[in-house]
Amino acid sequence: MTDDVTEDRKNGGTTRERGTAAPAGRGPVHAFRDDALGAHDAVGLARLVRAGEVGAGELARAAVERIRLVEPELHAVAVPAYDTYDPDEADKAYEADRATGGPLAGVPTLLKDNTDYGGLPTGHGSAAFTPHAAPRHAPFTRQFLSTGMTFLGKTRLPEFGFNASTEYENDEPVRNPWHPSYSPGGSSGGSAALVASGAVPIAHANDGGGSIRIPAACCGLVGLKPTRGRVVANETGRRLPIDMVGDGVLSRSVRDTAAFLAAAERHWRNPRMPPLGLVEGPGTRRLRIGLVAESPTGAATDAATRAAVAAVALALEGQGHAVEPYALPLDGRFEQDFISYWGMLAFLAGAGGRFVYDRHFDGRRMDGLSKGLRATYLRRMHTTPAFLRRLRRAADEAYDAALTRYDVLLSPVLAHTTPRLGHLSPNVPYEELLNRLRAYVAFTPINNINGSPAISLPAPAADPAPAGGVPAGVMLSAAHGDERTLLELAFALEADRPWRRIQDA
What we know:
Elements: H1 3-13, H2 42-50, H3 56-74, E1 77-79, H4 88-96, E2 108-112, H5 139-145, E3 150-155, H6 189-196, E4 202-207, H7 213-219, E5 222-225, E6 246-251, H8 254-267, E7 288-291, H9 303-318, E8 322-325, H10 334-357, H11 368-380, H12 384-405, E9 408-412, H13 430-438, H14 445-450, E10 454-458, E11 473-478, H15 483-496
Helix pairs in contact: 3-4, 8-15, 10-11, 10-12, 11-13
């Protein structure tokens, strides 16, 4: 056994907790137990597979059992490919690709259900679709699978990823494993619930306004939205006037996110961007960090969120970094222009659904949020060229000004702590729901418009804990192409203040 494997056994693999899925409202719900997955992260599991300590099929079998344990409570799976999957195929695939296999070979995972996997339906979280098999893998799916991970199915999202909570008009919501009465965030809520509950160590997520970082914050995970162009272009995003969508993963450790990006880069690297490589620990530079506690949209930041960000600021100062308050010089129209663009996406989804997605697409079955956003856009359609110009200019000017002065920005991910399910339901009247979303999703969209990288990290445990004991998150943002600095800071914070584990809650 290698020293790395010995260290992994010592740090995560020998002390394993047996989990049971708690009834809804009586969380937490987790699946950590005495099986092949243990409490390992993806990097640890891949090392065990390479060392011959465990087989890829054994990991797949354990993950399927765990998913089946938590799924009746969490409702996180959209397409259960594991129902017809033979775990022995994972061993065969690993042996076939042993020489050239990806760095995460043998690690079980799932793909978000807005990304095509050949032979399986893509539902985009919407009842407007008639499920049918995608003819081929999306380009990002190929990059994702190039890491060697074992695919087990697809995870749920709110309709078209528009909502910040994974809820539906006429179906069970995805539940937060820390407390099933609370939201897991969105739009990558299904992936977040499965990773946080221990069903799998890592899963696909993508982010068009916060959809990696928001569920990471709600579920106590690491979620990095990469720089635009860091990974293969998202099939939907590349067709938009402003490509807001970046693909990545949700994980329980910084090293898993770093390992995924390094592995993805082996498949394809953007020649216009500095190479990232494998980031393995904290950096040595002392950085200038701007603390953005006030929302650039004017939404109030609640006391618990302020306290979480202040605690991280103190930790960063303790590590030798210079932290000072900063206010983003963002154009006051940015929020309204972003809502207009959001509405344009809903309009395009409804108007072009039959042509872009599925000839059986029925726009009448879109949910209340999508219909409301579409109506908002129709009232402002004549301003489209102007708001697109303003959005780009405001985001770029504000962000360039900040990153000229600082190396990194520290902020909340969300303006207030995770809400209970129902608060952001698409059944809430549209204007009220929109106001609730404006008061919640106040920090993340600028990175999507500007294309810059940002990472959500679990905040230190609060005393007293937020309502329901649900985690909160903090966000670090950097200049284009500088994921390395974000990961190095994340490694340092993870080592300085290890995050809460759901199996200890």
